[in-house]
Design goal:
Elements (H helix, E strand, L loop, with lengths): L4 E6 L5 H11 L3 E6 L7 E6 L2 E7 L2 E2 L1 H7 L6 E6 L12 H13 L9 H6 L21
Antiparallel strand pairs: 1-6, 2-3, 2-6, 3-4, 4-5
Helix pairs in contact: 1-3, 2-3
Length: 142
């Protein structure tokens, strides 16, 4: 199976919800690899027709693993465009997964991993740039 990395970046710039929206809007097929300096092994999300069908980290897989990835706030990612021959373990659609993951993150039900730990403890009104202007950050709209 040949892979072709078509997108690389950091979850501090494009968060997981935004990435899943992007892949969903384009109906992408491939593997999203998440690389965190806080973990020895990468995580993987398998995507068919823009919808995550499985997530794998170490010896765990499924929706709980996908949910945990919403807490990886500063990990690097690579998306390889390839045909997926992987068993579906996640039945929910992309929007349900994004909404569930973001809600769980807001409700502090997901462990936050990385530099975002300190920033996530502040309310959104406390986030300001160097000039003191509040920073507003929201999700991409489908």
């Amino acid at each position: 199976m040949s892979s072709n990395i078509v997108l690389k970046g950091n979850l501090g710039f494009l968060n997981l919800g935004e990435l899943l929206q992007l892949f969903g809007g384009s109906g992408s097929n491939g593997i999203l690899k998440l690389i965190s300096t806080h973990h020895d092994t990468p995580g993987f999300i398998y995507i068919i027709d823009g919808n995550p069908i499985d997530a794998v980290f170490q010896d765990q897989k499924g929706q709980d693993v996908l949910n945990s990835f919403f807490g990886w706030l500063d990990a690097d990612f690579e998306f390889s465009d390839e045909k997926i021959l992987h068993r579906r373990t996640i039945q929910k659609n992309r929007m349900e997964l994004i909404l569930d993951g973001l809600r769980m993150l807001d409700d502090e039900l997901i462990e936050i991993v990385g530099q975002g730990q300190a920033a996530s403890k502040k309310s959104k009104t406390e986030l300001k740039d160097e000039s003191g202007i509040p920073i507003i950050k929201g999700p991409l709209v489908d």
